[in-house]
Amino acid sequence: MSGKLGLGQVALMSEWNAVLPHLPSIGGWPIHCLLSVFVRIHSVTALQGTPLSATLSLVMSQCCRKIKDTVQKLASDHKDIHSSVSRVGKAIDRNFDSEICGVVSDAVWDSREKQQQILQMAIVEHLYQQGMLSVAEELCQESTLNVDLDFKQPFLELNRILEALHEQDLGPALEWAISHRQRLLELNSSLEFKLHRLHFIRLLASGPEKQLEALSYARHFQPFARLHQREIQVMMGSLVYLRLGLEKSPYCHLLDNSHWAEICETFTRDACSLLGLSVESPLSVSFASGCVALPVLMNIKAVIEQRQCTGVWSHKDELPIEIELGMKCWYHSVFACPILRQQTSDSNPPIKLICGHVISRDALNKLINGGKLKCPYCPMEQNPADGKRIIF
Ligand SMILES: [Zn+2]
Predict the structure, then answer these.
(1) Ligand 1 midpoint to CA 276 (Å)
(2) Computed from CA positions of residues 209, 211, 212, 213, in that sequence, does the dihedral angle turn out positive or negative?
(3) What are the structural domains, with CATH classification, of the chain?
């Protein structure tokens, strides 16, 4: 989304900023106060059956007064914050369209039960991906959604390893990387090397007494000598400064904490790609794209209604216009047939002719004349059966 706020958002932010200062004060002190009074009352009422002495009666009446005062204070605080919060609600109603269901025709969706199931599944997957395992479990139970272990397993494993990495424990990640070495190499991943490097750096940071251990650990770099020659040279060079202290050497950048954040990112990216998972959950991607696309869709809806051409948008899996979502949402290449000016699909795939020009299969079929095909571009004559399907 662009960084520029619309007028509605500015109005909403200013109302919200008025609420913020009230938030920390609400509840905290008065509730603490009430609790301490209740504890005192409890200790008095523990003496059940015995008549209250004059002192205890006094304590009780003090307690009652205290409770009354505190509740009054809570009520007046609540009144203050309520008026500010209700202004936020009104700003939302005034500045934003509440009715957004109408942007897409009902025919696009499956049945209500199916929709609900898909949405629940998307939320559960998102929660697993975010590492909120207990919340995901709870949702599964309450929604009676049946998620099998095969689905959960990769998320559980990734989260266990990531949690260890956050604690700067390299063990589980290294074990995982070594057991998936071949497939990681096929992905051009440098995860295993980076993990060994961090372990080595940690040994260096412990000072000269770990020098021998560091030297012996360096043998782990051997398989990566060709791909990461320069980085290995840097690490070996840093050994010279071990006695002096790495933090005072030209190699102090090795101790930078950002390496830990980087390794978490590398691990998430490479492990997700190896396991065929997306780095971001489908729910967060859909939500982010929806935020960009919704204003455009609302405009289209308004235009369609104004011009009374409601039948225009009837395609189930295609929007009436193209909406630019930004590079982040580019996942695969698309090809539009230059003859029919339509995006190719599984039923009408792109076909490469022997001259090298590419058109869609429907266009090719239309261009066949007497069993021969003349390329509309070069114009080489050829046998239509020689065209080859292209997969992007
Ligand atoms: Zn051609």
Answers:
(1) 38
(2) positive
(3) 148-275 (no CATH), 333-389 (3.30.40.10)
